[in-house]
Amino acid sequence: MGRCIRVRGQVQGVGFRPFVSRLANRLNLVGQVLNDSEGVLIHVFGTALDQFEISLKTEAPSISKIDVIEGVTFEGPEPAAFSILTSSEFGTQTRVTPDIAICSDCIAEIFEGGRRLNYAFTNCTQCGPRFTILQKMPYDRARTAMKPFVMCADCRAEYSNSTSRWFHAQPIACPSCGPRLHLIPESKDPIADSAWRLLQGEILAIKGIGGFQLACDATNIQALTRLREKKRRPSKPLALMASWNVIKAYTSFTREEEERLNDMSAPIVLISRTRMRSRKLPEIIAPGVYEFGWILPYTPLHHLLLDAVKRPLVITSGNLSGEPQVICNNEAKEKLFKIADSILMHDRDIIRRLDDSVERVTPRGPMILRRARGRVPETMMLPEGFSDVLDVAAYGAHIKSTICFNQNGQALLSHHIGDLDDPLTIEEFIKTDIEFRFLFGQQPKAVACDLHPDYRSSQYAASLGLPLVKVQHHHAHLAACLGENLWPITGGKVAGIILDGLGLGADGTIWGGELLLGDYFKFERCAWLKPAALPGGDAANREPWRNMLARLDQAGLCSYVEKRLQKKPYGLLRQAIVTNSNAPLSSSAGRLFDAMAAHLDLCVDHQSFEGQAAMYLEALAREGIGKALELPVQKRVIDPAPLFKLVGERANIAACFHASIAEAFAKEARSLITSGEAVAVVLSGGCFQNALLLELTLKSLNDVPVLTHNKVPANDGGLSFGQALIAQAKLKGGILNDN
């Protein structure tokens, strides 16, 4: 008599089968283990079965994530030993492990000798690529990009040795049998020559795990300038990669930031520049903002390069402006030589592109700004009440697009795909949908999308021929925050302070600075910023001076506008506002931040990337002191006009602006708590990536229960998750035609 044990969760590609084998041998048990469609399946015989089942959970590999262990009595032939069987070919309903940063044992191996000395593809069961090399499930070498590389005798021996850390490590490799580097132009020592080129001021393209990257010496202003010019990225901050000792030489960080930097997901972590040490870096890396984005090397290749250059490198995605990151060698040769002087590539395929994840630490813990490599395809448990509803797919927004599948009580949120203005990004969006359905066995019964009919994501969702749920943009933000905090479907209504750029409102106007009262099923709009025109329509998203014109005129400062904008066509825009010609009204908080930034001479003419003006405004506000100004509220409309009449130091005005917006919305939200209409407050929308605004809003809310984002981006990258939850709730409640 034996026991059949089913283990569900993130248990493939984490060394779980080798762990099971070692545990069984230690307890003198016999049987077998395999990967299959639902996770890991074990048949085990012996006397210590209870201890075995307990130890499965208490001693599991650190990178595994167990959802449930189910054991039942099993009758069958008892084998003579314990073995690892070949995986089942069918089914795809288990979780896949994200790509994992190189572990300390493998770091020691590439630097301290042995047959993998200086080998750029060293990994074991506890580290290395997973999702980016996976072709199909279950996770085995023959179903990955490692299939062409036949293991040598030494690697086969390690792979088969139950006591080694390579036991059933699917991407195992060495210089004799694994992937190989080569540099273009040709080189006998690609690492050494790449390092030499970087130190000479060249731009190097590097084939990473999730795509090609562009790198240059972060201390070389000329190299940085060339990179910005060639990549057409004039101002957007660039990330810094450095070894642990080098990072510590440049900046200090909190314990929480250190934990994020060293996390096995290896994200870019934003760290305040006020904590920079005496050793400085060029302003051109992140002009006008108050944080640098730091990342530790997460592959053997990165470690070897950084050890050779012994200084920080700027690392950014390898792509032409607006296009997806390059992942193929031929495409890299075609496109990246327009930017890079040389290309360091290898012969292992990248199956799917993944950017680096981006995080910061807030007063409420870590916050994910871009969810990508190291995080995807982790799944999230759905809140109570969502286990018995139809499976749904949701297709997010037009900007920062993602896709989310809700199935079997879990949410599978895709990586950051990008902005759907670019045809190649649209192709990537569709490819991601197809891949996720194939890999994970997703069979949605309905789909959800944004209310805006012109979003490419909405059009794609409508083309799928499934029941369609259209979800208001800011309601989706509210639901995304509820969902990641596991707010039950019957948990009651919350007051949602939702501040972002633009979203089509339920009344057909453009929203963006909202206080909502609602849950997963419905919402009502309880307060909002006084709408102002967007002169020129979409042009107002790119040119902050247009928003300044609208807000200053609205505040009665017309003569001041004429003085400030002498060289701008302000007369024509005023006429457009009067005649409502391509100048729609909007309550957007994002455009309000743009207006104030331009008013304070920050990023007046043009934004080269989304959020640039607001980031500059936040950096300026951190230099000032300003108490909240009580803003007038009439018929639920919050009027920011008094903020444009403030006089004094620019930094103090910026600080007062942040404090006043935070307090105005917090006051309205508190009133909903006091009246008993809401039981908690939700903070969501892209503006809450502004750490200062988040901090001040939390302070203004004081002891009110508040839900914030930690796992799902507050920006549009989390929108598909919220859409999926709302669609499931509405399908369950039969209220598809309500808000």
Give the mean pLDDT.
94
CATH topology of the largest domain: Nucleotidyltransferase, domain 5
* Uncertain parts: none
Count all strands and give the number.
30
Biggest sheet descriptor: 10 strands, mixed
Strand content: 15-25%
CATH class value of the largest domain: Alpha Beta
CATH architecture of the largest domain: 2-Layer Sandwich
Describe the model:
The chain has 739 residues and is α/β, with parallel strands linked by helices. Helices cover 31% and strands 20% of the residues. It contains 22 helices and 30 strands. The strands form five sheets. The protein has a ten-stranded mixed beta sheet with strand order 6-13-7-8-12-9-11-10-14-15, with helices on both faces. Helix 15 crosses helix 18, helix 19 crosses helix 20 and helix 20 (650-674) packs across helix 21. The model has no long low-confidence stretch (mean pLDDT 94).
Helix/strand layout:
Elements: E1 2-10, H1 16-26, E2 30-36, E3 39-45, H2 49-58, E4 65-74, E5 82-84, H3 104-112, H4 153-160, E6 181-184, H5 190-199, E7 204-207, E8 212-217, H6 221-231, E9 239-241, H7 244-250, H8 255-261, E10 268-272, E11 291-295, H9 300-309, E12 313-317, H10 329-335, E13 342-346, E14 358-362, E15 365-370, E16 379-381, E17 392-394, E18 404-407, E19 410-413, H11 423-440, E20 446-450, H12 456-462, E21 468-471, H13 473-484, E22 494-504, E23 510-518, E24 523-529, E25 532-533, H14 539-542, H15 544-554, H16 558-564, H17 570-579, E26 585-586, H18 589-599, H19 612-621, E27 633-634, E28 637-638, H20 650-674, E29 681-684, H21 691-701, E30 706-707, H22 719-733
Parallel strand pairs: 2-5, 7-13, 9-11, 10-14, 17-20, 20-21, 22-29, 24-28, 29-30
Antiparallel strand pairs: 1-3, 1-4, 2-3, 6-13, 7-8, 8-12, 9-12, 10-11, 14-15, 16-19, 17-18, 18-19, 22-23, 23-24, 25-26, 27-28
